[in-house]
Amino acid sequence: MARKALKIGIMPLKDYQERTIAIARGEYRPRKDEPKIWFESLKALGEVMNNRNQELLRVIVRHEPDSLKELAELTGRQVSNLSRTLSTMERVGLVKLKRNGRKISPEVVATEFTVEFGISTASAADSNK
After folding, report:
1. In angstroms, what CA-CA distances link 72 with 27, 54, 59, 60, 121?
2. Where are the domains of the chain?
3. Could you say which of 3.90.930.12, 1.10.8.60, 1.10.10.10, 1.25.40.10 is the CATH number of the domain covering 5-128?
4. pLDDT averaged over the chain?
5. How far apart are CA 8 and CA 36, in angstroms?
6. pTM as predicted
7. What is the DSSP track for 71-102?
């Protein structure tokens, strides 16, 4: 897998909701260099990208497992645990789960990450001005 970078943003939920509404209303247009994945806090990011889950991503990149069963054998984790963890990672955009019938194979979206955040009090609509 080629190294792909992914930008992650940290923004309080209230601000993210305001940003989303401003986008829907056409009041704000996201820049191409803005993060595509957002978390409410560094703590929320840390819960998803903890050491154990980072190692899980490394195993997926190295071994390219064809199924959750194979991934379970590689990691020593239960399939049900992997399913929950990978579903969360898919929901936030860190992995893709390819479904082929009953078989699910995980794919890591990126291998490099940058985190961007600030403490601005301006709303998303104001930041376009």
Report:
1. 46, 15, 10, 11, 44
2. 5-128
3. 1.10.10.10
4. 89
5. 7
6. 0.81
7. HHHHHT--HHHHHHHHHHHHHHTSEEEEEETT
